[in-house]
Design a protein that fits this description.
Belongs to the catalase family. HPII subfamily. It contains 18 helices and 19 strands. By secondary structure, the protein is α+β, with helices and mostly antiparallel strands. The chain folds into 3 domains: 81-384, Catalase core domain (Catalase HpII,  Chain A, domain 1, Beta Barrel), CATH 2.40.180.10; 457-533, Hemocyanin, N-terminal domain; 537-701, 3-Layer(aba) Sandwich (Rossmann fold), CATH 3.40.50. The strands form 3 sheets. Strands 1, 2, 3, 4, 5, 6, 7, 8, 9 and 10 form a 10-stranded antiparallel β-sheet that branches. The chain has a 7-stranded mixed β-sheet with strand order 15-12-11-16-17-19-18, sandwiched between helices. Strand 18 and strand 19 form a beta hairpin. It is globular, with a radius of gyration of 29 Å. CIS-heme D hydroxychlorin gamma-spirolactone (HDD) binds next to strand 2, strand 3, strand 4 and helix 9.
Amino acid sequence: MSFSDTFQENDQKKMKQMEAYRSDDDGQALTTDNALKLTSTDDSLKAGERGPTLLEDFHFREKITHFDHERIPERVVHARGFGAHGYFELYESMSEYTKADFLQVPGSKTPVFVRFSTVVGSRGSADTVRDVRGFATKFYTESGNYDIVGNNIPIFFIQDAIKFPDLIHAVKPEPNNEIPQATTAHDTFWDFVVNAPETAHMVMWAMSDRAIPKSFRMMEGFGVNTFRLINAQDKARFVKFHWKPLLGVHSLMRDEAQKLSGKDPDYHRRDIWDAIEQGNYPEYEFGVQMIEEDQEFDFDFDLLDPTKLWPEELIPVKIIGKMTLNKNVDNFFAETEQVAFCPANIVPGIDFSNDPLLQGRLFSYEDTQLTRLGGPNFREIPINRPVAPVHNNQRDGMHRMAIHPGPVSYFPNSLAQNSPSPVPEEEGGFAHYAQRIDGHAVRARSESFRDHFSQATLFWNSMSAAEKEHIVDAFHFEVGSVKDVNLKQRVVDMFASVAPELAVQIAAGIGAKPPAQAVPKSTQASSPALSQENTIKTARTRKVAILLESGFCTVSVRNMLAELKAAGAVGETVSSSLSEISGKDGTPLKPDKDLTTSGALLYDAVYVPGGSDHVNVLKQNHNARSFINEALHHAKTIGASDEGAELLQATDAAAFLPDLRDAQAAPQIFQGVVVVNGGSTLQPFCTAFVDQLAMHRHWSRAN
Ligand code: HDD
């Protein structure tokens, strides 16, 4: 077997293991759980056709009993999530920094399972709410399962895990009436914030566009806590982990996200499911930031403080591999719901730091699975099984699967020659990093954790004008939803310590007083890596609606579809109904979508081709005009050729477009609106449209 064959097999290893558990019912007889074949499942056994059901109907009892017990407790946080399988491929050997086996050989592949999630909402809540997104990755390595249980925001709300229950109680629906669902826009959350100023930095991120991602495929992931990498010589370095999406980091707008919650509550899961089914596999590069142990105190933030990031300009992210998600789950419950992550799942070559948030997390995750998955054997559930062999003396408990023969289940023993026996470090045994620990037992916080505002200010300073506007808008909505007037004022006063101009704008939006005291900013510094304006921009996998009625210009549509395909984008035809229409040359077309079930919210851009008959119908259709208006207000790319531009003139676009009758055969671009007159069949128009599409949004015209 060649080198690459081995890796190919490695990549498939988890899928092969899962294969053994898959139940294929195709063409099979219906049976009970005891494999008894059944003649019917429609009627219960009765004493006469109109008589009572008999207790002896074991099929009825089994069916109903199983149904009655189908639900398990949802996760106490991150209840709503979506998972996918894939693999991680290493670009370059990390042997200088770590002995982790999956980070040694360039080109090696490790199977992974990733679960994305929101934090606050319950299992049935909407995808596009303003919230932190979970980004949890399980690597099935040859040395055991390794989990990076991260978020799409590089820092956290609190510095010590002991405050986690308080934070979550404050942010979840209020306990007296269980209102509101899946949102931070309520009194208890902001009450916690103003009483815990360490939240300032994370609240800035949560009010930014990062908290309303466009897609799971377009958001970063961060391990958040500081870990250690340990090499074969036992040299340790502090490390932070990063996932960087190859499609760039992109977000929705607040208004758009809120409307999407109604139009398609499954927007994010549908997006990633469809992308994987279509072969548009989500890809994320894996990066590490490393700091030598002897530089621990060289920075103006504490490396152990989880409310601080390590600015990428100061400590660059070294890209070392790529993760590709290439397979959807076969069964949501079996895989996505039952997967159990834990930051304590590490492998030789990786270790913890003393970050007090991380230290608490190491306990919480295993503990919560006991309630959620019903006992200590949850690691035997197929999705949680390592691909590496498991041998120990743990026995019994609810739902035990493994059958251990023989009388020995203890160590040391002579009856089984001490099997299974510990192995030395050189043979792969895990040895904890021998950090020196010396201190008094104190319930206290380090002085070096006291600066709560500098990095919140750094974040604000790093935002583009549009991003700042969105942050102000988010505060306006969130704090505007708070009932307690005093609380609102305290938010304004607290965020004056981040940026006075921000506080003034929040105050104006929510009817509070401007901050009493103008605190000078603690830093003028900025970090370009924090702004989404500086991200990768590409048209790949973007969705474009082509609005059509009978009489459209066939050639224009054909050219646009070809251009979109060449750019890796997806064009969909949308008409007033799903009935067949025809182009002005008589070519029949069955629209992909209709204006009632679809809408601009579900697309990145819209194109209206020429053809006077078709445009005259569109102009009369309220849904078609709203489509353009919505795309316009959400700063999306809009294209129109020839008579297609007349539809734009019948919408809010008219206010800033010049008289389109003067448009030339060369494409003209007005803040993301591309128009052409007489040149719709020419390449430059389609190319200009795709270039604008790649820009994601045109913030200058958003309102
Ligand atoms: Fe947590 C789930 C991420 C702090 C306690 N957390 C959970 C998930 C993610 C994170 C992505 C969902 C995993 C999945 O998809 O199943 N959590 C984080 C990050 C944190 C963080 C990035 C800050 C650095 N978490 C944190 C603290 C505690 C917890 C401080 C408690 C002390 N988290 C949990 C939990 C959950 C969980 C209660 C709920 C479901 C689960 O673990 O499996 O144990």
